[in-house]
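Posted in: Protein Modeling Q&A

I'm a second-year student putting together a small comparison for a lab meeting, and my supervisor asked me to include a predicted structure for Peptide methionine sulfoxide reductase MsrB. I've never done this before, so apologies if this is the wrong subforum. The sequence is pasted below exactly as I got it from our records. If anyone can share the structure token output, I'd also love a short note on what stands out.
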Amino acid sequence: MPEYRKTPEALAKLTPIQRHVTQDSGTERPGTGELLDNKAAGIYVDIVSGEPLFASSDKFESGCGWPSFTKPIAPAFVDEFRDVTHGMIRTEVRSHHGDSHLGHVFEDGPRDRGGLRYCINSASLRFVPREQMEEQGYGEYLNQVEDVQ
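Accepted answer (user: helix_wrangler)
Welcome! Here is the predicted structure, written out as tokens:
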């Protein structure tokens, strides 16, 4: 397995919104994320560490204004923490190796797909198209991505 980690080089490449979301536990405005309407086949990886997080086959339209997924590619890459900020009790989602804030998970997702909704900021993600997964080192996850959308 490749080594996924946060590096000074990766942090230096972040845009202001990517830094705000991933490093300061911020949130992009709903409906503004670059990957919200992405329907291409592939995977979504941590913008900081590159660790694989979500597959396009698990993405769904939730209407919440952020990309939503039913489950992570591998639970080992996603950590969940109790979040009591903003007067709410939620479950924060962070990448395991990069420790990037990704978003939150809620229990109002599609019941027939497990019932979870991982509500994730586009600014925390980089999309890797299916046809580039092998060359970028994500070939082992091809079986989690549909052939066509």
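A couple of things worth pointing out for your meeting: The beta strands are 42-46, 52-55, 59-60, 68-69, 78-83, 90-95, 101-106, 117-120, 125-129. The longest helix spans residues 16-24.
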